[in-house]
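Dear Dr. H.,

I hope your travels went smoothly. While you were away I took the liberty of generating a structure for the chain from your last submission, since the lab meeting agenda had it listed for discussion. I wanted you to have the full record in hand beforehand rather than looking at slides cold. The sequence, exactly as received, is reproduced here:
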Amino acid sequence: MHENDIGTIVIEECIDIHRELGPGLWEVVYEVVLVDALLRRGLKAVRQVPIPIQFRGRKFDEGFKADVIVDDKVVLELKSVERVAPVHKKQVNTYLRMTGCKLGYLLNFGEELMRDGIHRVVNGLEE
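The corresponding predicted structure, in token form, is as follows:
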């Protein structure tokens, strides 16, 4: 499945989840429910994926943990805040570079409307 097709499913599920649960819960709540929804849709979705970093020719296992990676292609960073900061989008871009993924989403479940909390980030993805 292409990254954009995965992204469409992710967005559909996020909107449905936000409608049902509402804004402002802890991020982990949305993470657990979203992964379950994606698995039910037939996607491979993994939570809290450890990502090692490469720096100056050395590998460090103590890199970071991606909130969710879908089908080994799409990185999801979940937030539940009043407003996302520019650094959050940069964070997703860095995660894409470090994982080799081409598509990521910053998903803020703290917004009143989920559509306002969806931020698409690409790194070399051909449209």
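Two observations you may find useful: The chain has one domain: 3-122. The first strand starts at residue 45 and ends at 55.

With kind regards,
E. W.
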